[in-house]
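User: Here's a chain of 147 residues. Predict its fold as tokens.
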Amino acid sequence: MDAWPSIRSCSRARTNERGIALAIALIVAVLYFGLIELMLYDASRELAEARRFRARIIALTLAENGAELAARDLVNVPSNPAPMTDWQGTMSGDVSKSGDKTSDVGETFKINGTGDATGIVEAHATVYIQGRIDKDGIHIDYTRHSQ
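Assistant: Prediction complete.
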């Protein structure tokens, strides 16, 4: 008599589950790699959006700095400074005045500032300021920021 009769009766040849573990492993691997691909796609999209946002903010800041640079001597003798460039981009500004301070309306001015961000993503922004100078001081009537 055999001591282990149950071992002989248990055979893999009698079952239909021979490759089910391999098939499940392959299906799980395909799903896993698909999920990784979606995550990589989403991360690259978010990185591109962050780069565009950063470039827009830098361009707008450079445009505002260009307008401030142009308005530096607005009351006395305004001058149009040369464009300035650094590692983030280029800023420039120009100012024009017309009229007389002693009139009822005062002397009017217009300031234009531009900024160009450089880098992986480039962006352009402008700032426009319109106002007047009278005996009471400087008054800004209208501003426009664009990108």
